[in-house]
Structure formats: structure tokens, C-alpha cells
Amino acid sequence: MAPILELRELSVSYETQGGARAVLSKLSLDVSAGEALGIVGESGSGKTVLVRSILGLLDPPFRTDHGTVVFEGRDLRQLDEQSFRQLRGGSIALTTPEPRKHLNPLISIGRQIVNVLRAHQTLAEQAARTRTIELLRAVGIPDPERRLAAYPHELSGGMCQRVIIAMALAHQTKLLLVDEPTAGLDVTISRQILDLMHELAVSHGTALMLVSRDLGVVAHYCRRVAVMYDGRIVEDAPVEAFFAGPAHPYSRQLLRAAAASRGKRGAEKRVDALAEPARTGCPFRPRCPVAVAACATAVPALQQVAAGRRARCLRAEALLRQELAA
Amino acid sequence: MSSVRLLKYASRRLALLPVQLLLVSLIVFVLVRQMPGDPTFLYTGPFATTERVAEVRKQLGLDEPTYVQYVRYLERIAYGDFGLSMRTSQPVVADLRQRLPATMELILYAVVFSVLIGVPLGVYTAIRSKGALNRGVFVYGMTSGALPDFWFALVAIFIFFYKLHWLPGPIGRIDLLISKPQNISGLYTVDALLTGNWPALASASGQLVLPVATLVFIYMSLVLKNTRSAMEDMLRSEFVTYARAAGLPRLMQWRYALRNAMPPIITVTGILTWFLLGGAVLVETVFAWGGLGQYAVQSVVNSDYAALQAVVLFSAVFTMVIFLLVDLAYFLIDPRIK
Questions:
Q1: DSSP secondary structure, A150-172, as one string
Q2: Which residues pair with A235 in a beta bridge?
Q3: How far is A119 from chain B (nearest CA, A)?
Q4: Containing H/E element for A6?
Q5: Residue A297 forms beta bridges with which residues?
Q6: Would you call B143 an interface residue with chain A, using a CB distance cutoff of 8 Å?
């Protein structure tokens, strides 16, 4: 399928007193219509900045230095504010971690949803109200007529997340950016929320870009996974193949860490103290157990390593053949 | 539904008011009597004989133990009698009736203009962090906090009255040749407007310009800076970012932010109002305003017990009412307050 979102060499930096620090380095990634893509990586790898930069929400000190964000054939970076505004919450929507913080605490949720509806279409008050009730019902909020007047603090975190989903899917959403959907919610609730999101996305034909530190969530809901490290995609693979055998040593560490946190034995090899990414050669080299001399000089490119798989590692093929123990 | 809750909340707060006032009156009563200086001499003059002083002291009831005096004081207050001012030889109530509206009129306009100018400027500079207006506001914020209000008042009088003759001089609330408007609220501008007394309205407004401008210039920065920082915080908040991500128009994003920035803005407005009741005293003095602040200072200097007690009691009521209004405003804005 043709990609609806194409990121090409997107570079974002963060202005500090000591100069600019790269947050995203020439990041390229495609999302196809209707597909579910998972983005994983440790905190600080640039996942949230990636999501915000797609929506054009980065404010100083963040700065987009380079690259294009093409959505449905249009370069969003060239878009004027008015057209971009129509796109946000329209064709591209966002759901956030800690949903309650992202709702206006002083306005009823009904009014907030009505405001979102009317930001994108001309709707009479009564029609907007009716549509809001429909949306609340669609996201599984019981007794929606009464809940219109509720304020965010009167709802549980799970309910607030449902309100956010209702707003995100109020229009013909083509791409739903889901940022850390499980943060701040307990396990059973986050499962329900993710099921709902997934179900609605599938029924609307909405592409999902699911950013999470939880590999289990990605394995369950996504068809493809992209691993981020130091502002770059280091691996991009179909989910089954990825979990069967990662093609990048960082992916392997992530998988092992996930296994360790689930309490499985045999994952005793912990990730060492998180060394800073290297500035020359392969950025992951200081933490890499399988690095060789060549890694210190050559910056690996994101290359095809198998059918439908890309990895940014000189030793990807050896890793894939499972020759390298570590 | 919310108005019923509001009434309940307000009446609960108001029910506390008498208790608080009783406490304040007791503390003031006792403290005033610890001040150096004996009001008896104010009455008798410095050359009276010891016998005469003792006689007067007995007449004034000052020879009784403090608690007896206090009970008598409360009894008289119950009949609306706050005693005689020894300095003005008038009932304190009559003094206050004259001076209170003077200060209230000054505070009213100073606060209204501080809010009308300070809040929009604060919002604007929070939204647009660059530009000439922003730099101007920055310089103003630095300057106004560093200038004494009475000095600014004197400079303003020098320029606008003495040099340019644009505004009337510091001769009080109304031109001496123009008769005061009929007393309704005590605020000259309001009363003149109500009775259609245009010469009085023009004169009273003219007299207000410089003192109000002084207070606004010096103290508005409090409102401005608080508005700007509250607004900046809210513009950076998650829910405004999310409103932007959801495609809400700019204006709506700003409204979301402003609504959430209202509580601190209301608080600082309350604090400003409270502060000006006594804080405007130097400006009152410069403009011969004859307000409450001046009266309070004179009462302290002259050990004028009755006057001082009444002023402090009134200040307490005023403070409590201001902060009750602040709390009620919070209550109306924020549904999380129970």
C-alpha cells in the first residue's frame, strides 16, 4: 500500500547553552494507510519528539533543521498555520499519556469535545451535542448524556483516555498517533483502552503509530515495529520476524530487558550503565556487546537485511544468523 | 445547582465573619492600649494639673481595667457607637463616613484600571514573546517596581499641573469652588453621575486622574507580571498543547489558557485591593486626599484610641470581604473546589 506518511531525513535539534543537541538525526520512516506501526525505544531516544514534529507542535528550544514530513502528498513543513490546524485533530490525531492532564480542568468534557468538533466543521450547537453523545457512546462511556457535564477530575484516568480517543476519532482520521497509551493507567484498563483504540482504528481504516516502551503492547497491536535509538531508526521489521530474532544489538537488549522485567530467568545479562551515544562511528558502540573495530569508524546506514527488514548495524547479518552470542 | 452551592459556601464563610471580627477587635483593643502615649493628655493639654488629668481619665473611663473597658466598648458598638475621636472631636463614624469613600473611590479606579490595562498587556506579552511592546513592558516592569509612588506623584504633579497645566493641582477630591455632589454613595464621581451634576463630575474626575494614574503606574505591574507568568505557564500546559494538537483555533487555545490563569490573576487583584487600603497613604498625602490611610496614621501618632480601633476593625472587615470575594470567584471558576 502507498504510504500516507513519509518522513525523509528529518532532523530536529534542541538548543542548549552548550550549543544545539540533535534529537532526531536524519530520520526516515514510512507509514502505510491503515497499517499499525509500533515505535519503541528507551526514554530519550526521541519518540515523543518524533510524534510532536509530525504534528508541527515543536516549540523553541526545539528546532526542525532539515527534512520533510509528507502526509498524503503534502509537505507539512511548508503548510501554512491555518491548513495545518485543519489537519491536526482532523486527518492526523493524537492521543497522549496521562490523559487527565491533557484535558482542560475547568471545562466540562462535553464542551471540550464540542469545541473540537466545531473547530473542524460547521455544526449547530444541538447537532454538535448529539454528535458528542454518539462519540462518547462509541468509546464506551456509559450514560453519555449525563457525562457531558462532567469535568475531567470527576472521571477516572481510563475514562479520560476514552474522552481523548473520542476527540481523536471525531473526524475522518487517517493517522492516529498514540503516545505512550499505557502510562498512568493500570494493566487491565490499558488493555481495554488499547483494544478500543485498535478496534476503532481498524473499523475506520485509520493508520496507527503507536509509541510505547512496552514491547508486549507493540507485539500485540502492531504489524510492524521500528526501534529508535539516539534519534535514529536502528531497526524496522515486521513484528513476527522482529520478536523471532532482532537484527540490531540494541533491539536484542530491549527484548531481553522486557523479558527480565517480566521476571523470566535467563535474562540475567543486564544492560550496563547507560553510556552516552558515541559521536563518531556507530552511536550504539559504547553499549554494544558485539562491536568490532570497524564500528568505531564507519557510521552504519539503515540497510535492507532481509525481506521487509532494515537495520542500522554492520553486524546485522551475523546477528540474524544468530551466530553472535553475547 | 452551582448557584445553590455558591450560596451555601458564601453563607458558611459569612457566618464566620462575626467570630473573626470579635477576635480582631479584642486583639486591637488590647494592643492599642500597649502603645506609648496617654490619650488623656490629648484631651487636657500638656499643662493640666495631676488632679485634672486623673479626673479626665476617670471621665474617659480609662481608669478601669482593660477588660471592663472592652466590654463597654462592645456594648457601644452594638448601638453603632464607635466612640469620639479625640483629635477631631467628632464621632468616629462621622469621620469614617467622610474619609472612607475618598479612599474607596481612589482604590476602585486604581484597581479597575490596573486590571483593564494589566491583564490584556500580560496576556499579550505572554502570547507574543517578542516585539517592541514586549520590550517596553519589560522596561516598565523593572522601572515601576523600583520607583516610590510619592516621588512619581510629585513628578507627575510637576509636569502635568505645574508645567503643562493639563490637570488640576493636588487640592483634594474636588475643586474648592465647585459644590460637592449630593451624598449617595460618597464616591463623588458616582454621585455626580447619578444626580446629573456635570460640573462636579468633571472636577472630581479631573482630580482623580493624577492620583489614580500614579497608583496604576506603580502597582499595575503586579497584575501585569502575574498575568503574564500565569498565562505563560498555562500556554505551556499539557491541555493547551493538546488543544493545539486537536486543531483548536489559536483564539480558543488562548481562552483555555486564560481561564486557567484566572485564579492567580484574581488573587493578585485581591491582594492589590487590600494593599491599597493602607498602601496608598503617601499618595493620599501628596494629593491632600483626606482618605482613610491619612486618618489612620494621624490616629496612631495621636494615640486616638477610638479612631484607631475603628480603622483597624474596618480594615479587617474590608480584608475579609475582599478575600471572601476572591474565594467565591475561585469557586465559580474552578469546579474542583468543593
A1: --GGGS-HHHHHHHHHHHHTSS-
A2: A227, A311
A3: 5
A4: strand A3-16
A5: none
A6: no
Nearest Cα of chain B lies from the Cα of A231 at a distance, in angstroms, of 22
Neighbouring CB atoms inside 10 A of A133's CB total: 18
Burial category of B217 from C-beta neighbours within 10 Å (exposed 0-12, middle 13-18, buried 19 and up):
buried
Nearest residue, CB atoms, A102 vs list B242, B248, B259: B242
Alpha carbon distance A242, A255 (integer Å): 10
Mean pLDDT of chain B: 89
**Interchain CB contact of B256 with A (< 8 Å):** yes
The pLDDT of residue A270? 52
Q: Is B130 on the interface with A (CB under 8 A)?
A: no
Q: What's the pTM? A: 0.85
**Residues of chain B contacting residue A151, judged by C-beta atoms under 8 Å apart:** 335-336
Whether B248 sits inside 8 A of A116 (CB atoms) is: yes
State the helix-helix crossing angle for B2-32 and B66-78, rounded to 10 degrees. Answer: 140
**Residue A96 in contact with partner chain B when CB distance is under 8 A:** yes
Question: Using CA atoms, how far apart are residues B268 and A324, in angstroms rounded to an integer?
Answer: 66
Which secondary-structure segment (H or E) carries A71? strand A62-71
Contacting residues of B for A113, CB less than 8 Å apart: none
Q: What is the per-residue pLDDT across A146-205, written as a single tens digit (0 to 9) for each?
A: 999 999 999 988 899 899 999 988 888 899 999 888 777 788 888 888 898 888 888 888
